[in-house]
Write the structure tokens for this entry.
Amino acid sequence: MLSFDGKVVFLTGANGAIGRATVNLLAELGATLWLTDLSSASLGGLVEDIRAQGGRAEADGVDVTRSASVDRSLAACAEAFGRIDVLIANAGIFPRGVLSDISDDEWRRTFAINVDGVFHCCRGVTRFMPEGGNILALASIAGHRGSRDHAHYAATKGAVLSLMRSLAWELAPGIRVNCVSPGPVDSPMVAELMQHRGEQVLRGTPQQRLAQPEEVARAIAFMASDWASHITGQTLHVNGGSFIGG
Ligand SMILES: NC(=O)c1ccc[n+]([C@@H]2O[C@H](COP(=O)([O-])OP(=O)(O)OC[C@H]3O[C@@H](n4cnc5c(N)ncnc54)[C@H](O)[C@@H]3O)[C@@H](O)[C@H]2O)c1
């Protein structure tokens, strides 16, 4: 069976919709979890639940835009658990704005979190990742198709996709590197999008609904598991068919 027994997983953005669903699933599958988000306090309940069910988890406050913060947490995880088998670079923001309204600061903030954050995690984790480990980043359908009124977001996710493909070459054969690319997920992140263009989004989705966070979590679990042992440099799409167009 698909199992994370004996695997140490470092995850960013653990307090988000996809983060929480992923944490709950990986805990069920036996992972030892190092959960990070901007504040460790926000993760307290999640950690308590995992421990109450006999699992192992720690929470840490990390700002992915700051490499020192990321490096400190990676080192603390490796010290506590011995190594890091899996990195899930999940933290991200989805700001809205038409081109003329995107300020320099907003452009840089989006790149700082969505791209620099992934880069900091990937660069730092290799010191602690043994052969057979793997890195997974959350991209987005926006990184493949673009996203109206979210050009800065789409640009960051395109950058993540090419960063991860490049690292798949560089870190092979010991470490696999992949992306999961969701379409819109039933979560606070897309509440505003659904308010503005919800009907259009659903019309363009063969399955005619948003993904549930748990459905993205299952794709993450597969790609991060040994079941995906010969998969690297790839992107697994989770979008109800919307990528094929119509
Ligand atoms: N929700 C969607 O519809 C959707 C679709 C496609 C891709 N994605 C991607 O999936 C990932 C997770 O999305 P989500 O829906 O769970 O989002 P979310 O907003 O629920 O969670 C994101 C988490 O990232 C954290 N975060 C933000 N800035 C940070 C920083 N500087 N340092 C550390 N953590 C920070 C937030 O605190 C939050 O807990 C993101 O990368 C997102 O772009 C989401």
User: Anything to note?
Assistant: The chain has a mean pLDDT of 97. The two ends are 36 Å apart (CA to CA).
